[in-house]
Each structure stands twice: as structure tokens, then as C-alpha cells.
């Protein structure tokens, strides 16, 4: 089982008039650990989807071990030994690792002989470089172990070329290092070649041999990680765009407590406590950063703060009064929010862009006069916001679901931050945005804070939190386990607290 | 078929206004579904040994071919407009309510029970009866919304089961405590006094319920599309998470939409009682509540589109008698057509989307 070499030549892919990829050529040598870099929308996902058969390229060729292959379907990629590990876990949580691995086999007999399957798997594990408890239900495994099980599955299926799509976004820094180190070892042993999509320069520098950089669907460069260095890689990704200024933090003393959470308990969809005994304050004129690994109660907390999820117990107060999230309360608090997954959390997909831009304001003048909804005003106001925030849309009447992710995000930003707000609840606000858009959002958050707004920033990106926050809280297992300031924080300690539960 | 769909696609592409394009697309889907249903029903007729063209000609005649046919069609369309609203309004809140029949029965019964005592009110008797009918229907379907929002009971199942309960309750009351002892072989509530009867529109042979139905659809249209309440309802139904995020009382909006829809269906029951039957009896359970589901889906949950659709479905039902007399077709034949209509509408949407997607994908760069 030797690692595969993979080469793409002049690959092109269009969606309608949109050019997702054009003339992309690169090569991943057998047994190398290759990084694929690029901003969002650079075409990284399209490229790897073409390689594993989820999409067919319109032009160009894919060569596996120097033979041109037509990969029309994921099954073709399977047969060639090409596999992919996704950002989020694809194992069935209720089944054991053993069951998951067996079920992943492409052809299963009608009746399973579990004893034989177990024997087969144990024989395989004897030679495998990593170990995961076989009989534990996947749901009980820690994130790092789940990701290891995903990789184990790929090895069990005889994959010899592995694509990783941001594999560490759900892991603590320690877990990430362990998993990537393991893969690195496999490439050195000549068992695997790896192509990894990543946004984290730290990981690329620590584990990758070479990088290929895409920008706006085109190949812009490749080279050894050591030769290029971080600056050059970033420059390739961004092209001629100027690096945005880091947001300027005005010196100020935090004011009164705006948001107070004490002994808060929130349940997840299954009724299990996702947040318990949570407490913190956010004061006017400060950004409080809530750091943590995804899945530790952040989502449920934010949903509860936004009135999307019931509070099971505890105190949730804004300006000293209980807060339930009615329109009147939102208005009084001056609350705005950028939740994660804006299309799912903050938009009505089938309604128009203009209507979505009016979700906060449709029931007051000038949008509504004397109980009559003025659609012309809503559309005109929508047009203004679309122009001011450079939302790329066919028009104000297009359904917002037709927009790209970045533009949906921009539309929500326009709605939430067009006028000054005094209390912001923000979750992974720049996830999936390019450098320039991300920087613009960071500027706005900092400007709001400088102007006296209270900001809660929930993020899985430690860099973002350390750059913006006045105070850093670490959430783990649904409670606050650590508090520090960016100046006093060190990554290792934070990582340890993030993993602690 | 492919030539027409290709030209339809060309029109869609050329349409400059996305709202116009969306409307055209919806219309094309509906027309396609109606054509499909006609084809399927035609095949059914051929299989049963009939000439489909002759049947369709007769169907047209029975529905719209004479003043009498129109009268018959309009009489059936009036309650359908109101029962369709019992589907459309909750649908705006994202709920699929299919138990409007229960609200028709409850509304009719309430109106009949109250109307008997209102002989002395003169022309004013109809107003309290209408309110009672609307209230009974509104509470009945409002209960569906309440069960859904507070206890998580699926609204389709809840409303359907409540319709059975309504039917049982109706039977119990009409054959028991509320029965007119004089109604021997057809248990009924006592006959309504003249003051409590809904008259016909000047010399047309069509009762005033038609005006109420049309008015209700127009009002529902204004409510849904031109008031902030309707906008909020659309948001709450389209994505409850986004609705809660901007502070909308999502659950209360859904319950209110159910209540309003139920009130419309209850009004349909009142109209049938006051204008047609003159008392509440088993004739009220004519299936208007269920046919209203068909109307609402063919109308794509748009109140104004209910108007022509109710005429179409009312017309099909009206022609049933003629088909039976002239061709010896069983009474249930038109129900088969209704069934095909419903299936085609449900199938057409995803089918049309898949075709459009395929065409788009094949589109040359």
C-alpha cells in the first residue's frame, strides 16, 4: 500500500456564469503533506470536490500515479484510493467505532457476520498506526478521537491519498497537533499522501511540505513551506489587496453592566444540559471574547441569548431587567447580533433580500404607516443597504437563499449594524469570509466598542479573540472555566482549559 | 411537451423582473400540473371505457355551460373559498392544517344552535350567528395551533384527529341534545327561523355567502401581503429561528393564524347552515373542509388565487350530477379527478424544479 501521487492539469469548472476554477495545475508528490491555501471563494472546495468525484470538472485532467483518470462519481475516487476527511464528523454517533468502520465498506453482504468483521478489523488494527477504542459509541469519544476514527476509517478503506478539509477546526490545539502529527508520520512512512485545506498558518508551517495557493479560482503559486514563509503565503492568497489595518482600540474604562448571565442553564435539542451554571457580565465599552472548542455549549448559549432557545434556569438580564427577547426589549437594549450560519439563524431563505433586510424594522415607520406595510419603502431601503454594504445580489427582490454565503453574511451585517447599536452578540462573525471582509467586520466591532457598546464575541478562532477582546473567557462543557486578558493569555494554557471537561 | 417547456424556459430567462419570473414559474407549474391531471384522468376514463373528450365536454357543460351550471358551481365555490383559507393562513405560519372539516362542522353547529333562538332579531340575527360560527371554528383550529406550539403535537395529525372528534361531537349533539324531535328520518337541529336564513343575491340563485367568501379572500390577501402582521407571520413561518432572533412571538403568531383560518372555515359552516340546509344535520359534512385543502394547494397558498381555483374545483364537483345522468358514470368519478389533481399538484413542484435544474445544468457556457 504505497502513497499515491496526484496531479491536476488545467482544471476548469464553471457554475453558470461564475468561474469557480480556471487553468489550475498542481501536483502532490507521493508521500508528501501538501497544503491547499486560499481565501474563501478561491476555489479550494471546488478543486477537492472535483478530485473526489462530487463534481465533474468542465476541462482539464486529473492524473493519479501519472495515469489520467476520469472521476465521475465518489465511487470512482474510492476505487482509486482517494479519500476525504471532512471538517465535521461523518460517523454515526449512536454506533460504535467498529460498526461505523464496517458500515463504511463499499459493499456489504446482506447478512453481516460480526465475528468475522471484528476479526478482520482487529487484524487491520494490529498494523494501524493509531488506535481508537473499538466498542465505544462514537458519541462518547472526544473530538480528537473522533477525528482519529475518521482517519482510521480512511485507512481501513485502503485510501492512499487523503484530502482533509480544515480537519482541525473542531479540535483543541493539542488535539490538532496530535492528529496532524500522526498523518505526518504516515506520509513519512510512505503510506499516504495528504492534501489539506487549512486556514491556519501555524499548522501548515508545522506539518506541511509544500503549498499550492489559489486565488479567485486560479492557481497563483506553489512552493515549499519553508522557502515561502508565512508572509509570502499570505501575500499570494490576498494578491495585491493591501493588508487591512488592525482595528484601533481606544483606551477606555468599561462602563455599566449591560448583559448579565448568572447560573444559566440551557438544554440542547435532546433536552440534555448544554449550558449549566454559566455566569458572566458584559459591560458597556468592552469586548468579551468567549473562546472554546465548537460543541461546548456556545451555540445553545447564543441561541438562548437571542431568544431562539428557552432558558431552563438561571438569570438572563439586560440593564438589570429580565430579558426574554421580545421586539420591545430588543429595541430598548439596542441589541444587534451576527449569529453563525446567518442563512439558517438570521434570515428567511425564501424571502427577498430587501425583506430580509427589513426584519428588524418592518413594523415601524417609515416601513409601516397606519398598519399598512409599505413595500416600496422596504424595497428602497433594501436597495440603499445593498449598495452601502456592497451585497452582490441580482436585485432586492431576489430570494436571499440565492446569494453566496459571504453575501448573505454581508446582508445580515447591513441589517444589524447599519445604525449604531449598544449591545452586540456575535458568534464566529467572520467564519468563511475573505481577509478584507473579515477585517471590515472586526473594524466595526471595535468601533462599536470604542463608542461604548457592550460586545460579546463568541468564537472558535483564538486569533480573532486575542486580537479583539478586552477580556477572554474560556467555555468548556457548558460553563466558564477560565478568565484572562489577551495580554496575559498564552495559547497553551488556553488550550488546556478548552480541553478541560 | 419538451417544446413548450423549452419556450417556457426561454420566457423565464428573458423575464427581467425576478418577481415576475417567479410568478410565471409558479403559474407554469400549476398549469402543467392541471394538464397532467387531465391526462391521467383521461387515461382513467379510457380504461373505464369512456371517451375522455366527451366527458370533458360534459364536465365543462356541467360546470360552466349554462346559468344553472354557473349557479351550481358558485354555490359550491363559496364555502371552498373559506375552507381553503383554513389551509392557507396556517400555511403562512409554516403549518399544514388538514382538518378544516372539523371547523366547518363546529361552526355550522354553533350557528344553528344559536340561530334558532334569534328569530326576534330580524335581519340582525345573521351577525351573531356568523360570529358564533367563526368563533367555534377559530377555537377548534386554534386548539390545533396551541397543541402544536405548547405540546409539540404535529398539526397535520392533530387537526385531522380533531376533525374526527368534531364529527363525533356533531353527531352526538345533532342526534341527541340538540335534535329537533320533528326530524324523524334525518336527525337535524330545529329549522332556523326566516330571520336567520341567508338570502340570495338579487335574482341570481346564488346566496350571499359567495360575497363573504370573496371578501374573506381579499381581506386575507391584504392581511398577508400588506400588513406588518402578515410580514411577521411570513417570517415566523419561513424561519422560526430568524423570527425569534428579531423578537417575533413565533408561537403566538402560529396559533393566531390557525385561529383565523379556523374562523374562516367556521364561517363556511355557518353559511351552509344559514343559506343551504336551514339547520345543522349530516348534510353539512359534505367534505368542503377536505376539498378546501385541494383548493389551497392548487392556489399555491395565495388567497387571491383561491378565487379562480375554488371556481374550478367547485365546477368539477358541480358537474358530477350531469356525468352521472348522461353517461352513467358513478358519482365518485369527479372525486377521482380531484384525487388526480391533488397528486399532480404535489408532484409538479419538485418535478418542475428538477427539469428546470437539468436544463440549467445543460445550459451552454
From TrEMBL, chain A:
<dbReference type="InterPro" id="IPR003439">
    <property type="entry name" value="ABC_transporter-like_ATP-bd"/>
</dbReference>
<dbReference type="Pfam" id="PF00005">
    <property type="entry name" value="ABC_tran"/>
</dbReference>
<dbReference type="GO" id="GO:0005524">
    <property type="term" value="F:ATP binding"/>
</dbReference>
<dbReference type="InterPro" id="IPR027417">
    <property type="entry name" value="P-loop_NTPase"/>
</dbReference>
<feature type="domain" description="ABC transporter">
    <location>
        <begin position="259"/>
        <end position="501"/>
    </location>
</feature>
<feature type="domain" description="ABC transporter">
    <location>
        <begin position="6"/>
        <end position="241"/>
    </location>
</feature>
<dbReference type="GO" id="GO:0016887">
    <property type="term" value="F:ATP hydrolysis activity"/>
</dbReference>
<keyword id="KW-0547">Nucleotide-binding</keyword>
<dbReference type="InterPro" id="IPR003593">
    <property type="entry name" value="AAA+_ATPase"/>
</dbReference>
<dbReference type="InterPro" id="IPR050107">
    <property type="entry name" value="ABC_carbohydrate_import_ATPase"/>
</dbReference>
<keyword id="KW-0067">ATP-binding</keyword>
<protein>
    <submittedName>
        <fullName>Nucleoside ABC transporter ATP-binding protein</fullName>
    </submittedName>
</protein>
<dbReference type="InterPro" id="IPR017871">
    <property type="entry name" value="ABC_transporter-like_CS"/>
</dbReference>
From TrEMBL, chain B:
<feature type="transmembrane region" description="Helical">
    <location>
        <begin position="304"/>
        <end position="324"/>
    </location>
</feature>
<dbReference type="InterPro" id="IPR001851">
    <property type="entry name" value="ABC_transp_permease"/>
</dbReference>
<keyword id="KW-1003">Cell membrane</keyword>
<protein>
    <submittedName>
        <fullName>Nucleoside ABC transporter membrane protein</fullName>
    </submittedName>
</protein>
<feature type="transmembrane region" description="Helical">
    <location>
        <begin position="336"/>
        <end position="356"/>
    </location>
</feature>
<feature type="transmembrane region" description="Helical">
    <location>
        <begin position="245"/>
        <end position="268"/>
    </location>
</feature>
<keyword id="KW-1133">Transmembrane helix</keyword>
<dbReference type="GO" id="GO:0022857">
    <property type="term" value="F:transmembrane transporter activity"/>
</dbReference>
<feature type="transmembrane region" description="Helical">
    <location>
        <begin position="206"/>
        <end position="224"/>
    </location>
</feature>
<keyword id="KW-0472">Membrane</keyword>
<feature type="transmembrane region" description="Helical">
    <location>
        <begin position="126"/>
        <end position="147"/>
    </location>
</feature>
<feature type="transmembrane region" description="Helical">
    <location>
        <begin position="24"/>
        <end position="46"/>
    </location>
</feature>
<dbReference type="GO" id="GO:0005886">
    <property type="term" value="C:plasma membrane"/>
</dbReference>
<feature type="transmembrane region" description="Helical">
    <location>
        <begin position="156"/>
        <end position="174"/>
    </location>
</feature>
<dbReference type="Pfam" id="PF02653">
    <property type="entry name" value="BPD_transp_2"/>
</dbReference>
<feature type="transmembrane region" description="Helical">
    <location>
        <begin position="274"/>
        <end position="297"/>
    </location>
</feature>
<keyword id="KW-0812">Transmembrane</keyword>
<feature type="transmembrane region" description="Helical">
    <location>
        <begin position="53"/>
        <end position="71"/>
    </location>
</feature>
Amino acid at each position: 500500500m504505497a502513497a499515491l501521487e496526484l496531479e491536476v492539469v488545467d482544471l476548469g469548472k464553471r457554475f453558470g456564469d461564475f468561474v469557480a476554477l480556471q487553468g489550475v495545475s498542481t501536483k502532490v508528490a507521493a508521500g508528501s503533506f501538501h497544503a491547499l491555501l486560499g481565501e474563501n471563494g478561491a476555489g479550494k472546495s471546488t478543486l477537492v470536490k472535483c478530485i473526489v468525484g462530487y463534481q465533474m470538472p468542465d476541462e482539464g485532467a486529473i492524473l493519479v500515479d501519472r495515469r489520467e483518470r476520469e472521476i465521475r462519481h465518489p465511487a470512482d475516487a474510492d476505487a482509486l484510493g482517494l479519500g476525504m476527511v471532512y471538517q465535521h464528523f461523518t460517523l454515526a454517533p449512536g454506533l460504535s467505532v467498529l460498526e461505523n468502520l464496517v458500515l463504511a465498506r463499499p459493499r456489504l453482504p446482506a447478512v453481516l457476520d460480526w465475528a468475522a468483521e471484528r476479526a478482520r478489523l482487529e487484524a487491520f488494527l494490529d498494523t494501524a498506526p493509531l488506535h481508537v477504542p473499538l466498542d465505544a459509541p462514537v458519541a462518547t469519544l472526544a473530538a480528537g478521537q473522533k477525528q482519529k476514527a475518521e482517519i482510521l476509517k480512511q485507512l481501513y478503506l485502503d485510501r492512499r491519498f487523503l484530502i482533509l478539509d480544515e480537519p482541525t477546526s473542531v479540535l483543541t490545539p493539542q488535539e490538532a497537533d496530535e492528529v496532524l502529527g500522526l498523518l505526518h508520520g504516515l506520509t513519512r512512512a510512505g503510506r499516504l499522501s495528504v492534501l489539506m485545506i487549512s486556514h491556519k498558518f501555524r499548522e501548515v508551517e508545522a506539518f506541511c511540505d509544500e503549498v499550492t495557493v489559489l486565488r479567485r479560482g486560479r492557481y497563483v503559486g506553489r512552493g515549499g513551506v519553508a522557502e515561502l514563509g508565512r508572509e509570502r503565503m499570505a501575500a499570494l492568497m490576498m494578491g495585491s489587496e493591501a493588508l487591512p489595518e488592525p482595528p484601533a482600540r481606544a483606551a477606555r474604562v468599561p462602563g455599566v453592566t449591560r448583559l448579565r448571565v448568572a447560573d444559566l442553564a440551557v438544554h440542547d435539542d435532546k433536552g440534555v444540559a448544554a449550558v449549566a451554571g454559566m455566569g458572566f457580565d458584559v459591560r458597556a465599552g468592552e469586548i468579551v471574547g468567549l473562546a472554546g472548542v465548537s460543541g461546548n455549549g456556545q451555540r445553545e448559549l447564543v441561541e438562548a441569548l437571542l431568544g431562539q432557545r428557552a432558558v431552563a434556569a438561571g438569570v438572563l438580564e439586560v440593564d438589570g431587567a429580565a430579558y426574554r427577547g421580545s421586539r420591545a426589549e430588543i429595541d430598548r437594549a439596542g441589541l444587534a447580533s451576527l449569529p453563525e450560519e446567518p442563512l439558517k439563524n438570521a434570515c428567511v431563505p425564501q424571502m427577498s433580500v430587501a425583506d430580509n433586510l427589513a426584519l428588524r424594522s418592518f413594523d415601524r415607520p417609515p416601513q409601516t404607516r397606519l398598519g399598512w406595510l409599505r413595500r416600496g419603502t422596504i424595497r428602497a431601503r433594501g436597495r440603499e443597504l445593498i449598495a452601502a454594504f456592497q451585497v452582490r445580489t441580482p436585485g432586492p427582490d431576489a430570494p436571499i437563499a440565492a446569494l453566496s454565503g459571504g453575501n448573505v453574511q454581508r446582508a445580515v451585517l447591513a441589517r444589524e449594524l447599519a445604525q449604531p447599536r449598544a449591545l452586540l452578540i456575535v458568534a464566529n462573525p467572520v467564519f468563511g469570509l475573505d481577509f478584507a471582509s473579515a477585517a471590515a467586520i472586526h473594524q466595526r466591532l471595535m468601533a462599536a466598542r470604542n463608542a461604548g457598546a457592550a460586545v460579546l464575541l463568541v468564537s472558535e478562532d483564538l486569533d480573532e479573540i486575542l486580537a479583539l477582546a478586552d477580556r477572554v473567557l474560556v467555555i468548556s462543557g457548558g460553563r466558564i472555566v477560565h478568565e484572562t486578558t489577551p495580554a496575559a493569555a498564552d495559547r497553551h494554557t488556553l488550550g488546556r482549559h478548552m480541553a478541560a471537561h | 411537451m419538451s417544446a413548450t417547456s423549452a419556450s417556457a424556459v426561454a420566457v423565464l430567462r428573458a423575464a427581467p423582473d425576478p418577481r415576475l419570473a417567479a410568478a410565471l414559474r409558479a403559474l407554469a407549474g400549476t398549469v402543467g400540473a392541471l394538464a397532467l391531471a387531465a391526462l391521467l384522468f383521461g387515461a382513467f376514463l379510457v380504461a373505464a371505457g369512456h371517451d375522455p373528450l366527451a366527458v370533458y365536454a360534459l364536465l365543462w357543460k356541467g360546470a360552466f355551460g349554462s346559468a344553472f351550471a354557473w349557479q351550481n358551481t358558485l354555490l359550491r365555490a363559496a364555502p371552498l373559498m373559506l375552507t381553503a383559507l383554513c389551509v392557507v393562513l396556517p400555511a403562512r405560519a409554516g403549518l399544514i392544517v388538514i382538518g378544516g372539516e372539523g371547523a366547518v362542522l363546529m361552526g355550522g353547529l354553533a350557528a344553528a344552535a344559536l340561530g334558532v333562538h334569534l328569530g326576534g332579531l330580524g335581519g340582525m340575527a345573521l351577525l351573531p350567528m356568523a360570529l358564533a360560527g367563526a368563533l367555534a371554528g377559530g377555537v377548534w383550529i386554534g386548539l390545533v395551533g396551541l397543541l402544536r406550539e405548547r405540546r409539540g403535537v404535529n398539526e397535520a395529525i392533530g387537526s385531522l384527529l380533531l376533525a374526527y372528534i368534531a364529527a363525533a361531537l356533531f353527531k352526538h349533539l345533532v342526534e341527541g341534545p340538540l335534535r329537533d324531535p320533528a326530524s324523524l328520518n334525518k336527525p337535524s337541529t330545529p329549522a332556523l327561523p326566516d330571520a336567520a336564513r341567508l338570502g340570495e343575491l338579487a335574482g341570481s340563485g346564488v346566496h350571499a355567502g359567495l360575497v363573504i367568501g370573496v371578501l374573506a379572500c381579499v381581506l386575507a390577501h391584504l392581511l398577508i401581503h400588506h400588513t406588518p402582521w402578515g410580514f411577521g407571520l411570513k417570517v415566523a413561518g419561513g424561519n422560526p429561528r430568524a423570527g425569534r432572533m428579531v423578537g417575533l412571538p413565533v408561537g403566538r403568531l402560529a396559533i393566531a393564524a390557525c385561529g383565523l383560518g379556523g374562523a374562516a372555515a367556521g364561517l363556511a359552516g355557518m353559511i351552509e347552515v344559514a343559506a343551504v340546509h336551514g339547520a345543522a344535520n349530516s348534510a353539512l359534512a359534505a367534505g368542503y373542509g377536505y376539498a378546501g385543502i385541494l383548493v389551497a394547494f392548487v392556489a399555491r397558498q395565495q388567497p387571491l388565487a383561491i378565487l379562480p381555483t375554488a371556481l374550478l374545483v367547485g365546477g368539477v364537483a358541480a358537474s358530477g350530477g350531469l356525468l352521472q345522468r348522461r353517461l352513467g358514470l358513478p358519482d365518485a368519478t369527479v372525486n377521482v379527478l380531484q384525487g388526480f389533481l391533488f397528486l399532480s399538484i404535489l408532484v409538479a413542484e419538485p418535478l418542475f424544479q428538477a427539469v428546470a435544474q437539468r436544463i440549467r445544468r445543460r445550459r451552454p457556457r
